[in-house]
Amino acid sequence: MRLREVYSICVEYMKKIPEMNVKELFQEKDRETGQYIINDDKGILKYILQEFEMLGQVNVLKPTLDELKGLMTIEKAINYRYTSNEKSQLMRGFRDLLVQLETIVNVCEGYGYADEEYVGFDIKVPDQRDFSSITKNLNDFNKIMKQSPFLNKCDAVIEYRKIDLGSTWIEFGIRGAAAASLLHIFAKFVDNCIKILSHKKNCQKQEAEYRRMEIDNKLIESMSEAHQKMTEALTNKYIGELSGKLDPEEQARAQLCFDMMVELLDKGMEIHHAITKNESNTLLFPTSEQWKEISGNLPAAENIEEKSNCAE
């Protein structure tokens, strides 16, 4: 998880903690048992447990959340009866949670993180131990940004912002009057490259299956040539949709950019929405779960185009 995402979640839940006021629920007490009986007409406990699911994405908070959930549930059902000791534990747990949230937020802000509103995206660089491979991947990505005809025709420019602390995530912003438009073009480009990679992987699987079945090599070679032509035709189709008519030099650069991006995606590069207050960044790129599918055999790439269309 990106540190900025951790920061954003913690900021959001610091604001929600006052809504999670369980202290006001401890009003009625059973005279016989001495236990507190919670009359939760507003469904506060259910609301808290639902909110804990999102907050649980921050790993460092899990021990505190697990302790609170252990007090608030009995065999997965909500607990409505508490001893005085359990009440004290619950109150202390919420105080500890708030302190942890405040600490994370303060540390992040000390490193320059803050709620911001800008147009942009983040990339996750493939996790490779070979430094020369990492630098090549970044160099190829930079070439795509600089040489692609369809990414350099808007009144906007893609700029490096920062490296997410302690990770391989890099943040990019888009500056200019047509920033939102350029972001949509870039998202469409990524979507097209995912489809091309999906097509290529499916073709490779088919060829590998035929080799396993010991089909004649000439037939496999003929099929491989047909697959290459189909990939080229698909790429040219997408270039035309993004760029319109190009001269031969621009066409060659666009083709190279598609080839490099497909290769980067195949290596494991991911492109995600920027974590900001700007709604222009949402619904354009695959979710983390979709990227897991893409890194496999990519059968669900068509769904990504639907998300992109919804954002336009």
Termini, distance in Å?
A: 27 Å
How would you describe the shape?
elongated
Question: How many strand segments?
Answer: 9
Radius of gyration, in angstroms, nearest whole number: 26 Å
Number of helices: 10
Look at the helices and sheets and give the structural class: alpha+beta
Approximate strand percentage: 5-15%
Helix fraction bin: 55-70%
Low confidence ranges: 298-312
Strand count, sense and barrel status of the largest sheet are: 4 strands, antiparallel
Overall residue-averaged pLDDT value:
86
Please trace the helix and strand order, writing H or E for each element.
Answer: HEEHHEEEHEHEEHHHEHH
Strand order of the largest sheet: 7-8-6-9
Please, could you describe this protein's structure?
There is one protein chain. The protein is an alpha+beta fold and 312 residues long. It is built from 10 helices and 9 strands. Strands 7-8-6-9 form a 4-stranded antiparallel β-sheet. A hairpin with a 5-residue loop joins strand 7 and strand 8 (169-175). The relative contact order is 0.11. The model is unreliable at 298-312 (pLDDT under 50).
What's the topology here?
Elements: H1 3-16, E1 28-29, E2 36-37, H2 44-55, H3 62-72, E3 73-74, E4 77-78, E5 81-82, H4 84-110, E6 120-124, H5 131-147, E7 157-163, E8 169-175, H6 179-212, H7 217-243, H8 248-267, E9 270-273, H9 288-294, H10 302-311
Antiparallel strand pairs: 1-2, 2-5, 3-4, 6-8, 6-9, 7-8
Helix pairs in contact: 1-4, 2-3, 3-4, 5-8, 6-7, 6-8, 6-10
